[in-house]
């Protein structure tokens, strides 16, 4: 039986092993093949993907998006969808589209909002973030927020030590700056470093070969479990459990 995606994503006309210059599904959409392998719809960064390597989201920006203590905001009433950042930032237009805003300091603490779009700033205050849904709790000038890009927007090969959340493993070449499906669950061929044991947990490396998985150790991301013995520098069968 030919590998193909089931359920709603087929309506977008893009199958699991294809690359498209035109977005055909929401970033981060989830779909499964008939045999239960799970995929997330992703936008590739500046370099085309390599099948079987581990990919992550764009590296976290602790200066402009997630500084310690959060970003200041202007007061915003319940029901508004526009939040203005009062801290100086440098952010490209719509960099945060499909990403998220979290309120990290009260009022409004603990709420997360999907981001629809954002304006551009260049070392200045006044970044305007347009939310997909209205504020549930009003923000004041005492509130602080942090921002993050969607994990599946601008994915890059994991650089040896993750600098963002793991996005998954492409099964084919997805052309740079194009859209495609990245595997996150089920049987997958993955570049491996170390000695793997069937049934044991597999994690991301901490200081190693870019795009490679490794035997799981404390404080690493758990990517899944060995389906067979893993051999270093080869591609191992791993049952992914990323998301």
Structural description of this entry:
- This protein has 2 domains: 8-58 and 153-241, no CATH class; 71-148.
- The chain is built from no helices and 18 strands.
- It has strands spanning 30-32, 38-44, 55-56, 71-72, 82-85, 89-91, 100-105, 112-118, 121-124, 127-131, 144-148, 153-157, 166-170, 179-191, 201-204, 213-215, 222-226, 235-241.
- The protein has a 6-stranded antiparallel β-sheet with strand order 4-11-7-8-10-5, with no helix packed on it. Strands 2-12-3-13-14 form a 5-stranded mixed beta barrel. A two-stranded antiparallel ribbon has the order 6-9.
- It is elongated.
Q: What secondary-structure arrangement, pairings included, does this model have?
A:
Elements: E1 30-32, E2 38-44, E3 55-56, E4 71-72, E5 82-85, E6 89-91, E7 100-105, E8 112-118, E9 121-124, E10 127-131, E11 144-148, E12 153-157, E13 166-170, E14 179-191, E15 201-204, E16 213-215, E17 222-226, E18 235-241
């Amino acid at each position: 039986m030919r590998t193909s995606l089931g359920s709603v994503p087929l309506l977008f006309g893009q199958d699991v092993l294809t690359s498209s210059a035109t977005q055909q599904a929401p970033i981060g959409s989830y779909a499964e093949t008939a045999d239960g392998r799970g995929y997330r719809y992703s936008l590739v960064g500046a370099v085309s993907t390599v099948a079987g390597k581990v990919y992550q989201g764009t590296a976290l920006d602790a200066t402009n998006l997630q500084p310690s203590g959060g970003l200041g905001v202007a007061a915003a009433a319940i029901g508004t969808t526009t939040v203005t950042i009062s801290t100086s930032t440098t952010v490209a237009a719509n960099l945060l589209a499909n990403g998220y805003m979290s309120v990290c300091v009260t009022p409004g603490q603990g709420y997360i909002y999907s981001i629809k779009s954002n304006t551009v700033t260049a070392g200045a205050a006044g970044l305007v973030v347009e939310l997909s849904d209205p504020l549930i709790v009003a923000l004041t000038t005492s509130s602080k927020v942090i921002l993050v890009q969607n994990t599946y927007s601008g994915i890059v090969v994991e650089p040896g030590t993750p600098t963002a959340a793991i996005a998954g493993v492409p099964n084919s070449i997805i052309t740079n700056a194009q859209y495609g499906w990245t595997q996150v669950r089920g049987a997958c061929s993955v570049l491996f470093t170390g000695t793997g044991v069937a049934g044991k947990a597999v994690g991301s490396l901490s200081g190693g070969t870019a795009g490679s998985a490794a035997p799981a150790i404390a404080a690493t991301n758990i990517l899944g479990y060995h389906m067979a013995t893993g051999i270093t520098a080869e591609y191992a069968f791993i049952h992914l459990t990323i998301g």
